[in-house]
Amino acid sequence: MHTIAWFHDPTGGGPIYFHSRAALGQQAFLGFRPDTGTELAAVCTRRFRAHDPFVATAYALLAEDRPGPPGADGTCRAGAGQP
After folding, report:
1. Model-level pTM?
2. Taking the alpha carbons of 63, 64, 68, 73 in that order, is the dihedral positive or negative?
């Protein structure tokens, strides 16, 4: 399914919104997962080919089920992510 400018894929954890484009020599992918607060921007400089793995790889990274950022579940984790 897509909106006017973004593709919208429902998932078990919530929707994924993304958009990708290609031009001669460049490709770009921009995606967002509101349920995890994950954003992904990926660009590459190479010629677009049918079945190119760039967009599929970027989408797979965005779709991975990972825990949200510290405190996203409502708990306070002071020092989370610190060595």
Report:
1. 0.68
2. positive
